[in-house]
Amino acid sequence: MTTPYELVIGIETHVELGTRSKMFCACSAAWFGAPPNSLVCPVCLGLPGALPVPNRRAIELAITAGLALNCSVPEHTKFDRKNYMYPDLPKGYQISQYDLPFNVNGWLEIPSGNGAKRVRIHRAHLEEDTANTKHGDGYALIDFNRSGVPLLEIVSEPDLSSVDEAVAYVTALREIVVGAGVSAMRLEEGAGRFDVNVSIRFTEGATTIWPPQSEIKNLNSYQAIRDAVPYEAERLWREWQDGGEIRTRKGKITVGWSPERRQTFLQRSKEDVQDYRYFPEPDLVRFEISRELVSQLRDGIPELPTQRRERFVRDYGLSEYDARILVSDRELAAFFEEAVKFAGGEPKAVANWVTGEVLRFVKSDGGTIGATKLRPQHVGSLVKLVKSGDLSATAAKDVFAEVWRSGAEPAAVANAKGLTQVSDEGAIAAAVDEVLAANASAVASFKAGNQRALGALVGAVMKKMGGKANPTVINKVLAERIGR
Ligand SMILES: [Zn+2]
Fold first, then answer.
1. Beta-strand (E) ranges in 259-383?
2. 419 C-alpha vs ligand 1 centroid, how far in Å?
3. Which of 162, 391, 396, 474 lies 20 to 30 A from 246 at CA?
4. What mean pLDDT, rounded, does the chain reach?
5. What is the 41 CA–ligand 1 centroid distance (Å)?
């Protein structure tokens, strides 16, 4: 869809860290599905006099996430109070980080055309989650189980210029965070939430117009991003065209998204960092992050998608394009590597199978590769059978379809279907000799320059062998016997 304006998008992602206990108390952080208000104590209820004790694991995970996102980890950091009143925030403030976050200046890559685009990460800071409010008819119920769960807020720069890029960014971000073992980030359980800043930019005559942006709060699925962002961009555009309040507005507005009504609604019209009256948390000391800890955490990060892609290109000799497809899905990448082992090498042939037939069947199935009957050894066997000449490339595809359906071994399927071809030179040479002896005139005709006579000889050998001989081997043996 082309629009009369450019989109400029930045995303703040809230990720619940995978700790056992909460950020500043010993209560369980496994709030999802627990009976309301069963995981609480004076600290996370915000009772007067309760003191916070920082969760070391949460800090380690926050730094790990930052490192996985290519951030720098400053040596000095601290927590701050962010003051505001809301029923889900019993203390009247949230412990967050203001000017000295744990992580700054990172980036991640998203696919863009045949290459990659780098999206900058401004910062990633640690804070505590709020309670949950359930709205009823004329009342609201508050569940404090989620209050105090460690939350990492990852703030991107406004480097995204389409909805597809926004979704690619959150997809890549989630892959990295999950891959680094920082969070399971189950979106359906609210363990990842997105605040999306939407701006539009266009020209009127010679002037570039950049109306105040909207921040869409608390989107919790990729689909919500796909629906809400274009809606809000279009709304901003219309409001400007209609000469609405946006033309005199100072600063951004905050909106919510209603999936039922499929529209945004105004939450707050003005919000300034001064309104929060941040100040250093007096109940916590400042932190000094040792370089030893940083390098220790860096060493503990498993291979992430970008590194895996580089390794596939380097070690398997794959094209950037194939490597990108394989790495886009963790399961697919693992399947590929297993299949290469079973094939005894041949990474390019295996990659062709996996990015070709395998992916085509997985897509038409609508599932994931792990949920099918296909195993890496099946693809490994197919590659071997084609390489040895026991199976033609065409027959291999027939065999694959049957293996996919039944989960049977490729060699057994090939035999049962009578698709195995004979590549044994001895057997083929015997048939060739018989054919040559019985077709002296065709041989003479070929030697006199009639190329078509050769085709007739190949056909005769094939017929003698029941159609199952490897044509490449027949040609080779014929060439040896009658000379060319
Ligand atoms: Zn607690």
1. 263-268, 279-280, 287-288
2. 67
3. 162
4. 92
5. 4
